[in-house]
Amino acid sequence: MTGTKLTRLAEDIVEISMPDPVTARQIAEDLREAGCFEEVVPALTNITVMFSPFTHSFSTIERVIGEQLQSATSITQPSAAEITLPIIYGGTAGPDLEHVAEALGLSPDEVISTHAAQTYTVDMMGFTPGFAYLSGCEWSVPRLSTPKPYVSAGSVGVAGSRTGVYSLSGPGGWPIIGRTSAALFDAENSKPFLLSAGSKIRFRSVNA
Question: Considering the entire predicted model, what is its pTM?
């Protein structure tokens, strides 16, 4: 497969560069099924693979990865059910809506209508558990100059050309434009987080 490169970062960690998030997710699934890795973590343009050097030699790991990359001839975006998240924009739920509108040269209502009109794709999960990075908007919004020590679970922020959804409460540096009441995390569920890489997302404004 073109556009890939394998780099050994540590004795038990390998990074594989990927041409795009869709390819990264699919190759990561294939590597998990190989059954010889401790953990496989896809990101936007790379996959981090962790293995036990006491169980598998680096040459074996290199061979298995090479075989998976060679056999992956055609990667397509798998169909995914669309998830609609109800969202309250502005006010205490979206304290940075005015800031974002000013940065974009739009009115708050224009920001809301534009944001809610898009279909988004979860490209990857990070920087905290359950945090979803969504693509699908053409904006370029600067991050906050000073990160917030606490952002409520369900908050929806924008930064650069991405939307971020906070599944759990915690710190964050993204301007917050709204908050969803959807249950994004359920510790009792076998799949605790509602969102995952590849999910299709729509936002439905519930502003009065």
Answer: 0.76
